[in-house]
Amino acid sequence: MPEFPHKGDSPPDGALDVTTLQTVGQRAASHPLVESWSFTPSNASPRTLEIHLDPDAYPTETDAVRLDVHWFRSGDYYVHYVETAGEERYQCRWDRHPKTNAPRAHFHPPPDAGDAVDARLGTHPLDVLFTVLDWVSERVESLHAGGD
């Protein structure tokens, strides 16, 4: 999947902030839904921080759940939530980068990371992380309650 599939998206400017990504991964590990985190393709050449969530926390057959995090030295970021069950994919994304038809901080809603809407996220990496993890927790609770 292309990193910026939506018209009007431009990639965040600058290099990845690996130190911030490492801090985000370490802090994410304290959340009860987080199983592990790692850099891909490798620690020596990180391009993405993958935060793996516990699929057994979901009430339905879920094969894998993860957050792909990119944080740039410029302060721009994107956090991509991906939930898979067989061939089905449920996804959304929180972004902060220049976009011609949306605010700098915006959200691509589920189930397919659709057109951007305004997102009221902070700019501090840990604020963003825990806001997203709160959203994930609410999603899991909603699924347990019979929602989609």
SSE diagram, text form:
Elements: H1 18-28, E1 34-41, E2 46-53, E3 64-71, E4 77-85, E5 88-96, E6 105-108, E7 117-118, H2 125-144
Antiparallel strand pairs: 1-2, 2-3, 3-4, 4-5, 5-6, 6-7
Task: Label the overall shape.
Answer: globular
Tally of distinct domains: 1
Number of helices: 2
Briefly note the structural class of the backbone: alpha+beta
Keywords: Plasmid
InterPro entries: TumE-like
Quick structural gist:
By secondary structure, the protein is of the alpha+beta class.
Structure description:
It holds the Pfam family TumE. Keywords: Plasmid. This protein is α+β, with helices and mostly antiparallel strands and 148 residues long. It has one domain. The protein has two helices and seven strands; from the N terminus they run H-E-E-E-E-E-E-E-H. The protein has helices at residues 18-28, 125-144, and strands at residues 34-41, 46-53, 64-71, 77-85, 88-96, 105-108, 117-118. A seven-stranded antiparallel beta sheet has the order 1-2-3-4-5-6-7, covered by helices on one side. A hairpin with a 4-residue loop joins strand 1 (34-41) and strand 2. Helix 1 runs parallel beside helix 2. The longest helix is centred in the C-terminal third of the chain and has 20 residues, at 125-144. The two termini are 24 Å apart. 28% of the residues are buried. Mean pLDDT is 90; it is low at 1-6.
Task: List its salient traits.
single chain, 148 residues, alpha+beta, 32% strand, globular
